[in-house]
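Quick one, T. Sequence first:
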Amino acid sequence: MTEASEEDRREMLRQVRRIQVRTDRMVTDVMAGGYTSVFRGAGIEFDEVREFAPGDDVRSVDWNVTARAGKPFVKKFMEERELTVMLVLDVSPSTTFGAAPDARTEQERARTVRETAALVCGCFAFAAARNNDKAGMVTFTDRIERYVPAKKGRRHVLRLVREAYAQEHEGRGTDLAQALDYAGRIQRRRAVMIVVSDFFAPVPERQLRVLGKRHDVILVRIRDPRSESLPDAGLLRLRDPETDALVVVDTASRRVRAEIERRVAMERARFDDACKKARIDVLDVSTRGSVADPIVKFFRMRERRGAKR
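Structure tokens:
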């Protein structure tokens, strides 16, 4: 990637600071309670075995110890006292898609996919910090770009926000399978894995299932409405940011526009089906409007689902 100019760097720093302020405010105002109720105590770890006592659940019997001791023993677990949130972030060139930041209201302004993803990461990282949990990050393209080990504290969260928005990268494509494999290897204990991407690359079902068996995995799909349908604007020259392939599209053709929308819908259905098979939750966040609103709605959905279990 070419070196950014001094003016570009100053603009990046301004955007990072804006993201820090906005995500901190969103967490303070509306998100913290939802995070606590959905994720706090989500993990449990083995503590010890003890002799069976009246009232114990027979499902907790440790049959190996029972067989050796000749009398029943049960496994005792304790709730994990701290949680690890690992952000797995796509920083490939396709995430630069979208409008440049402007001064309109939050509900109206358009953002790039990268800025929206940074806001999402900031929300989860600040929420973790408020609950004294750890947060870390893996960024990827068609290679692993950077790994930031999970730590506590607001200063660490600010670093994660800077990495999410302003990081330069070497790769040109997107390799989600490699990113999921890597995240699973470096995070051995159970964690909340939040994978943030536009998911234009195919979802690797096997890696997703493997990661989902060990961790609480959430896929955050950043969607820009303009990438899902084209306006009637005549002939457009479009370039793939990851392959540099150039194509001319006749957007004046109703048939061409309908075909593009059909393919987008087909890919979206394929993605949803893969997540459903792997039993992975999906959170959709648009590049337009509030970032906090869909996250809070997602928290409430998880709360309701948890209450029914």
